[in-house]
Amino acid sequence: MPVQDLRVLPDNELAQYVVALQYRVATCELLLESVTSRLKRTVKIVRSVFLMAGGLAASVESDFLGFVLVGFGVWDCAEAVGEDAEAENRTRRLEGEAAELEAEMSLAEIEVTRRRSLV
To answer: Which end of the chain has a smaller Cβ tally under 10 Å, C or N?
Structure first.
């Protein structure tokens, strides 16, 4: 919904445009990752490290058990790193969108201020 020239919009449409921008900024901020999901991924990575370390320690006694534990640890770690990369990409994309929307918002606020000063 970007408008090239906000000066051509009537007052009511400009107000609707500002409200729509505020809604879109709030939506982007809500979609950002929560602390809980970051903690879950951190716990998953720590768990995978312990599984790999346990597998290496268990390989002294039993090769098969050690191999299985290391395998689960590597699998868990790869899964956590993949999830982390996806979440980071999504977060960067949403932060970029929010920054663009806030820039549009500042232009709209400048136009609203200009109109108020003309009255």
So the answer is: C
Could you tell me the pLDDT band of residue 1, with boundaries at 50, 70 and 90?
low
**How far apart (Å, rounded) are the C-alpha atoms in residues 42 and 39?**
5
The whole-angstrom separation of Cα 66 and Cα 73 is 10
* Interhelix angle 63-118/11-31, nearest 10 degrees: 160
User: Domain spans of the chain?
Assistant: 7-118
| pLDDT tens-digit series, residues 3-19 | 567 888 888 888 888 89
The predicted model scores a pTM of 0.71
6 CB contacts (<8 Å, ≥6 apart)? 14, 17, 107, 108, 111
Q: Are 15 and 37 in contact (CB under 8 A)?
A: no
Task: Return d(Cα 107, Cα 95) in angstroms, integer.
Answer: 19
Q: Which of 7, 21, 3, 5 is nearest to 114 (CA)?
A: 7
Residue 1 per-residue DSSP state: -
